[in-house]
């Protein structure tokens, strides 16, 4: 299964900020496909295809991390021509976020797939956006998320599998397999 570690941003303390982000996403006009509300997240490490047999070792390794919780405040929405997304960015992400991502990307039991890009924290809102002019981007109100947990998520690798949970528009939903607490 295709796995990734992420901040799900769905903790109870983040309910108002997440709802505001969802409302913002619903008001974007123009090109691209909106990410389903339930799939909004901040990827920390994309692991790729991982055999089911590695899941217990991954969970154990992530459970052993003793890293601090932190807050994360949104700053703006940008369009990135590659990989053609509109995403929320952060003005001054805390060093604890980078430390968490680095640890997860280098887990000895299954290191993340090598990426040619430097880790740049973001939350993807829309896919298939070619440039800034293709989308009406209203000003994003700043929202602060309390990051007290992260999760191991499964991303559907088959679009035809009927057992995959879907939203009301038929889009596949990510599944959180396990949550881990930050200190």
UniProtKB/TrEMBL annotation:
Similarity field: Belongs to the 2H phosphoesterase superfamily. ThpR family.
Active site as annotated: 41 (proton donor), 122 (proton acceptor)
UniProt keyword Hydrolase present: yes
Phosphoesterase HXTX domain span: 17-83
GO molecular function list: ligase activity
Acetylation recorded as keyword: no
Motif HXTX 1 per UniProt: ranges: 41-44
Pfam families: LigT_PEase
Job of this protein: Hydrolyzes RNA 2',3'-cyclic phosphodiester to an RNA 2'-phosphomonoester.
Catalytic activity from the UniProt record: a 3'-end 2',3'-cyclophospho-ribonucleotide-RNA + H2O = a 3'-end 2'-phospho-ribonucleotide-RNA + H(+)
Enzyme class: hydrolase
InterPro entries: Cyclic_Pdiesterase, Phosphoesterase_HXTX, RNA_CPDase
Name of the protein in its database record: RNA 2',3'-cyclic phosphodiesterase
Keyword terms, alphabetized: Hydrolase, Ligase
Span of the annotated motif HXTX 2: 122-125
Enzyme Commission number(s) of this protein: 3.1.4.58
């Amino acid at each position: 299964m295709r796995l990734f570690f992420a901040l799900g941003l769905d903790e109870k303390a983040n309910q108002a900020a997440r709802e505001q982000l969802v409302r913002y996403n619903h008001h974007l006009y123009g090109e691209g496909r909106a990410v389903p509300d339930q799939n909004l997240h901040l990827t920390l490490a994309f692991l790729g295809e991982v055999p089911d047999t590695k899941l217990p070792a991954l969970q154990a390794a992530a459970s052993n991390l003793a890293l601090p919780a932190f807050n994360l405040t949104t700053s703006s929405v940008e369009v990135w021509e590659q990989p053609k997304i509109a995403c929320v960015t952060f003005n001054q992400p805390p060093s604890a976020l980078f430390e968490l991502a680095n640890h997860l990307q280098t887990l000895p039991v299954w290191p993340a797939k090598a990426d040619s890009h430097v880790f740049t924290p973001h939350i993807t809102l829309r896919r298939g956006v070619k440039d800034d002019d293709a989308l009406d981007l209203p000003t994003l109100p700043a929202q602060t998320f309390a990051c007290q947990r992260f999760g191991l998520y499964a991303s559907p690798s088959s679009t035809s599998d009927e057992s995959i949970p879907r939203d009301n528009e038929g889009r596949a939903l990510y599944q959180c397999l396990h949550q881990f607490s930050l200190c």
